[in-house]
């Protein structure tokens, strides 16, 4: 904590409302935020007086998922996708779940169009084509279909995925992107560098 501000107000029933604002820094990632606490006392503050912490908020809202380390590596391969992902990761907090869900769906649509080098129309057709060409397995198709359905529900039916689901949706999206843009090209390059096996002696 590097800054602290207090503001006390007396309520209609004699209770005292205190609002505390402080600038805090995460010991892990180093990000800063303003933490706002609201307290209530039964009368003036005193060691023996009952107090109650009513609410705690952070501004900007605290993100629960940080962008992956390989995000900057997309700048040359697919700058549009990099820009899209930066917007998506800015929504990884509890107040923008629907936007995050829609963003995951949009990112997957973009990536599948790039992999297939064409827009095959519906998500179902794209997923079938991805399996047919060997880009994903049938099990991966089922997982992607669930993620896309959740994003579509957020887009068209105001569906708000629970945190556990949205976390898995982001992880599925990252796995597809990493495989196509990072892992695949890196292993293709590494394959050339690996020395061949020596011939077997007869």
Shape: elongated
Q: Major beta sheet, specifics? A: 4 strands, antiparallel
Order of helices and strands: EEEEHHHHHH
**Would you count the extended β strands for me?**
4
Commentary on this structure:
The protein is α+β, with helices and mostly antiparallel strands. The protein folds into 2 domains: 3-59; 71-193, no CATH class. It has 6 helices and 4 strands, in the order ββββαααααα. The chain has helices spanning 74-77, 79-89, 97-116, 123-132, 138-157, 163-193; strands at 3-10, 16-25, 32-41, 51-59. It has a 4-stranded antiparallel beta sheet, with no helix packed on it. β2 and β3 form a beta hairpin. α2 runs antiparallel to α3 (97-116) and α3 crosses α5. The longest helix is centred in the C-terminal third of the chain and has 31 residues, at 163-193. The protein is elongated, with a radius of gyration of 25 Å. It starts with a strand and ends in a 9-residue tail after the last helix. The mean pLDDT is 84.
Summed up, what is this model?
This protein has helices spanning 74-77, 79-89, 97-116, 123-132, 138-157, 163-193, and strands spanning 3-10, 16-25, 32-41, 51-59.
SSE layout and pairings?
Blueprint: E1 3-10, E2 16-25, E3 32-41, E4 51-59, H1 74-77, H2 79-89, H3 97-116, H4 123-132, H5 138-157, H6 163-193
Antiparallel strand pairs: 1-2, 2-3, 3-4
Helix pairs in contact: 2-3, 3-4, 3-5, 3-6, 4-5
Sum up the structure in keywords.
alpha+beta, elongated, 202 residues, 4-stranded antiparallel sheet
